[in-house]
Amino acid sequence: MTDGIEAVTRSALAMALDAASLRQQVIASNIANANAVGYVPLRVSFEDQLVEARRTMEQSGRVDAFALGQVRPRVEAAVDDFGVPVTVQLDAEAAEMARNAVQYQALVKGLSRHFAILSMAAGDGRK
Question: With contact defined as beta carbons under 8 Å apart, do 68 and 15 qualify?
Answer without folding.
Answer: yes
